[in-house]
Amino acid sequence: MPESRVSRTTDTPKGSRSIQLGLLVLHVFVSLGALYGGGLLSLFPDGSALGTPLEMLRYTPFPDFRIPGLILFWVIGVGHMVAGIAIMRHPARAWLLTAVMGLVLMGWIVIQVLLIRGSHGVHFLYFGLGLVICGAGVSLWPRMKSRSRRG
Q: How many Å apart are CA 49 and CA 96, to the nearest integer?
């Protein structure tokens, strides 16, 4: 009997399970950081809770960190948490959400760097994480597409 491309225990194409687990870790990592940072920036919009000077916002349309903190919390934090849950519960449909959240993270970083007119090492780290998340989500697409056609 030829070996099936679908694992019997997970009903997921072989090799995809490790990608899913890796994505779960990355989504949770990004989410927790964004929930923490966004929450503190929203509650303490002067940036004092994170030691972030308001001077960083001098070229932006924001008088304080409240709006960026709310965006960070809800879009990046909650979005990546939802994507992490989806990649484990509905992997055949979650690849698109995962890829989009990777793009959103990269977009967030690019906009941030442009607005503050500078960058820090953490920007490169999170842009790289967004690239990996997006790429991994896209790599799941053909695998999950073939799975959903089989039933």
A: 35
**How many residues in the chain?**
151
Q: Tokens representing 84?
A: 């992490």
pLDDT in tens, 52-107: 999 999 999 999 999 999 999 999 999 999 999 999 899 888 999 999 999 999 99
Question: What is the C-alpha to C-alpha distance for residues 9 and 78, in angstroms, rounded to an integer?
Answer: 29
**DSSP single-letter state for residue 12:** S
d(CA 141, CA 67): 34
Cβ count near 128 (within 10 Å)? 13
The residue whose two tokens read 């990608």 is 19
| SS3 track for the chain | CCCCCECCCCCCECCHHHHHHHHHHHHHHHHHHHHHHHHHHHHCCCCHHHCCCHHHHCCCCCCCCHHHHHHHHHHHHHHHHHHHHHHHHCHHHHHHHHHHHHHHHHHHHHHHHHHHCCCCHHHHHHHHHHHHHHHHHHHHHHHHHHHHHHC
Longest Cα–Cα distance of the chain, Å, equals 67
Q: Across residues 6-24, what is the average pLDDT? A: 71
